Amino acid sequence: QLQASGGGFVQAGGSLRLSCAASGRTDSVDAMAWFRQFPGKAYKDRLFVSAIKWSSGKPYYAVDVEGRFTSSRDSAKNTMYLQLNSLKPEDTAIYYCAAARRFDVAVMTWKTTYDQWGQGTEVTVSS
Prior knowledge:
Layout: E1 2-5, E2 8-11, E3 16-22, E4 31-37, E5 47-53, E6 59-61, E7 69-74, E8 79-84, E9 93-100, E10 116-117, E11 121-126
Parallel strand pairs: 2-11
Antiparallel strand pairs: 1-3, 3-8, 4-5, 4-9, 5-6, 7-8, 9-10, 9-11
């Protein structure tokens, strides 16, 4: 089970830190990821934001967030984080975390790569 938290309301240029806590069996997790769904958009339009290889902690980012967002994980706490800096109004979305048993960088942006999803946490950035 994945539990996302940390969303909120922030002004442009501000920062937030999202968390995704995994419970239950986590030894089979190969990678975790963040996706976001913009207002008015459906699940099919949910977009990849970042992923992190659980064993190494190596992060991967979508082009539009690289340099502003930082993904990390705490293995001892079974928790993944996403630090969002220099936020823009266009970052407003519901952010979802996901976990994959088998991770392939070539398809890390595909929603079907991920076996488990959290409930989402909403980020609103005002201009």
